[in-house]
Structures are given as structure tokens and as C-alpha cells.
Amino acid sequence: MSNRIPMTPEGHARLSAELKRLKADERPAVIRAIAEAREHGDLSENAEYHAARERQGFIEGRVIELEDKLSRAEVIDIKNLSGSKVMFGARVKLVDEETDEEVTYQIVGPEEAEITQGLLSIQSPVAQAMLAKQAGDTIEVQTPRGLRYFEILQVSFG
């Protein structure tokens, strides 16, 4: 499997903005907070110092994580994609064959998945079951609630 991480231009921009904010705003702020806490004396009992150090550890870890993901990002502009088969970037309208509930998902990279916004990771079981299928096809997906069947109603791009 490739080390590349598929990502939409929007997902790439969002991660880049977070990285910039962490480096330009959060990192200097936490360094100032640590310096201020040090001025208050005994560090062993200084809750502000320990909280600031913990925050600094989180920020540095997230910066490293974002830099890694962005360096491996393979930005795929979905405006250039088309076709009738489900692939990365596709918007897919499904209907649950048991409940008749309709949902629409866009297949995105794992770093930008946000199920509440209809952004489904390409690595998810539902997306994996949909890949290379088209409108009219039925997929079966093993979920925590058992085997579920969905019909693909529509596949679109852009």
C-alpha cells in the first residue's frame, strides 16, 4: 500500500491552515505561558506550568502529525473527475434497503472524514463496499448492528 494520503484540495487547505495557526499563534502563546509560570517560582507545585507544558506537548505532537500528513498528501482535484463508478471524491446517494433512509456521502481521505458532514473515509467499510460500483448496484456492509444492505441511487462528482 502506498504511503500517500489521498486528500481533496479543501481537506489539504484545512490541515494547512491548522498547521499555520499552531505554529504562528498557539506555539508562541504556550511558550509565553510557560515563561510566565516559571516566574511564579516552585515548578513542582505549579499547576499553570504543568498545564502549559502539557499543552505544549500536544501542540508539538500535532505539528509533527500535520507536517507528516501534508508531506504525504496526494491532492486529488475532484473537479477533474467524472464517470458513473464510485471512486475517491464521488458523492454517492444511498438508500438503506431495510429502513428506506437515504444518505449522501462524499468519499474523502481518512484525514478529512467527518461523518456528521457527510464526509466518508475511503478506508471505511461502507466506502470500500461502494468502490467501483454504480447507481442501481446493491452493496452489503458489515456494521456493528449486523449485515446491512444499501442501494446506490446516484453517483456524481464536483
UniProtKB/TrEMBL annotation:
Superkingdom assignment = Bacteria
Q: Which UniProt keywords apply?
A: DNA-binding, Elongation factor, Protein biosynthesis, Transcription, Transcription regulation
What InterPro entries has UniProt attached to this entry? Answer: GreA/GreB_C_sf (IPR036953), TF_GreA/GreB_CS (IPR018151), Tscrpt_elong_fac_GreA (IPR006359), Tscrpt_elong_fac_GreA/B (IPR028624), Tscrpt_elong_fac_GreA/B_C (IPR001437), Tscrpt_elong_fac_GreA/B_fam (IPR023459), Tscrpt_elong_fac_GreA/B_N (IPR022691), Tscrpt_elong_fac_GreA/B_N_sf (IPR036805)
Annotated ranges, domain Transcription elongation factor GreA/GreB C-terminal = 84-156
Identify the residues that the record assigns to the Transcription elongation factor GreA/GreB N-terminal domain, covering every copy: 5-75
User: GO: which molecular function terms?
Assistant: DNA binding; RNA polymerase binding; translation elongation factor activity
Question: Span of the secretion signal?
Answer: none
Q: Name the GO terms of the biological process aspect.
A: DNA-templated transcription elongation; regulation of DNA-templated transcription elongation
Q: Which PANTHER family match?
A: TRANSCRIPTION ELONGATION FACTOR GREA
Q: What is the similarity comment for this entry?
A: Belongs to the GreA/GreB family.
UniProt function note: Necessary for efficient RNA polymerase transcription elongation past template-encoded arresting sites. The arresting sites in DNA have the property of trapping a certain fraction of elongating RNA polymerases that pass through, resulting in locked ternary complexes. Cleavage of the nascent transcript by cleavage factors such as GreA or GreB allows the resumption of elongation from the new 3'terminus. GreA releases sequences of 2 to 3 nucleotides.
Q: What is this protein called?
A: Transcription elongation factor GreA
Organism, by scientific name, is Arboricoccus pini
